[in-house]
Write a structure and sequence with these properties.
- GO terms for molecular function: ATP binding.
- Keywords: ATP-binding, Nucleotide-binding.
- Helices cover 22% and strands 37% of the residues.
- The protein is of the alpha+beta class and 302 residues long.
- The chain folds into 2 domains: 159 residues, Methyltransferase, Cobalt-precorrin-4 Transmethylase, Domain 2; 137 residues, Immunoglobulins (Immunoglobulin-like).
- Strands 15-16-13-18-19 form a 5-stranded antiparallel β-sheet, with no helix packed on it. The protein has a 4-stranded mixed β-sheet with strand order 1-2-7-6. A 4-stranded antiparallel β-sheet has the order 11-12-17-14, covered by helices on one side.
- A hairpin with a 3-residue loop joins β15 and β16.
Length: 302
């Protein structure tokens, strides 16, 4: 399903494969036959599109029949009567505010415009909730577009105004001084919210052998217990929306005979505390990046 949702182009054969493989509808996939475009005012079309944008995003396939929520056959749309511009106009004029990065993908069977399938690819909107022309807000629930409750609309507005600090990437460097190895680690965070992030904390926790010395030039908080060592941000640097900054920098110093064992026996987690949420990222790249540097310099560890 993930690969289908990632696509931005479709061929005739891929549409037929969706049917032959009996692809099921879901919270992210909807199949509509040609009659779904017969509503001249477009309110049903925009209702479904806005519901996807107010939820997790997804795709609507116009021109595919479904039976019991399973793709079952073709239901061609006359692209002369209902062209791409007509469909786009029905969506944009009936939904407020505009959904950014929405994509309409036409597929012409046998290069015949009267045998058209439209795929509307809708992103999860960062500016939800979007209101439909009938003055209602919709969301996806199972296989349907359903009206949002008042508290859901309110919560959606609050999320739009929030900041959201997430792990972006890390930079790992290694250098050797006589019989010691220095690992320099920089952790970058990004604000995926719509407001300036001013209340958050990033914590890097190392579980396993503590056969290293940690140093830092910044005023970070260090915690050393029997089972783990952690280092955390202290001074909070404001992060603007879509801005990525180096938020946590530190060095690990090893005797060169101990780093290989560290890579084998230790675990490094990242935890990000936002206002009201806690997210632990176990599958980050820090330890893997250290292992790659070790593999590139095997003579340093003999």
């Amino acid at each position: 399903m993930a690969s289908l949702l990632d696509k931005i182009e479709f061929t005739q054969e891929e549409i037929l494969d969706i049917i032959s493989s009996k692809t099921e509808e879901s919270i992210n996939i909807d199949f509509k036959d040609a009659r779904a475009l017969s509503s001249e005012n477009g309110k049903e079309i925009s209702k479904d599109v806005s519901a996807f944008a107010n939820s997790d995003g997804g795709m609507i396939f116009y021109g595919i029949n479904e039976e019991n929520h399973v793709a079952s056959g073709l239901s061609f749309i006359d692209g002369d009567k209902y062209n791409k511009e007509w469909l786009e106009n029905k969506i944009t004029t009936n939904i407020q505010q505009r959904i950014e990065n929405l994509l309409i993908i036409p597929v012409r069977f046998d290069n015949d415009i009267t045998k058209t399938i439209y795929i509307v690819k809708i992103p999860k909107s960062g500016s939800s909730p979007h209101i439909n022309a009938d003055k209602k807000y919709y969301r996806r629930f199972n296989f349907k577009s359903v009206p949002m409750e008042e508290y859901e609309v309110r919560d959606s507005y609050l999320r739009v105004s929030e900041s959201r600090v997430e792990f972006d990437r890390c930079t790992v460097r290694m250098k050797r001084l006589i019989d010691e190895i220095y690992i320099s680690i920089e952790i970058h965070a990004i604000n995926k919210g719509n407001n300036i992030a001013e209340k958050y904390r990033v914590v890097c926790t190392i579980y396993g052998n503590k056969n290293f010395i940690c140093t830092t030039e910044n005023k970070h908080i260090q915690t050393n217990t029997e089972s783990y060592f952690s280092i955390a941000t202290n001074d909070v640097i404001p992060i603007f929306p879509n801005e990525s900054i180096n938020i946590l920098s530190f060095n690990l110093r090893f005797h060169n005979s101990l780093l290989v064992d560290f890579c084998k026996k230790n675990i490094i987690d990242l935890t990000i505390y936002n206002q009201g949420t806690i997210e632990t990222i176990e599958e980050n790249s820090i330890l893997k990046d250290i292992e790659k540097l070790v593999e590139k310099n095997p003579r340093w560890f003999k």
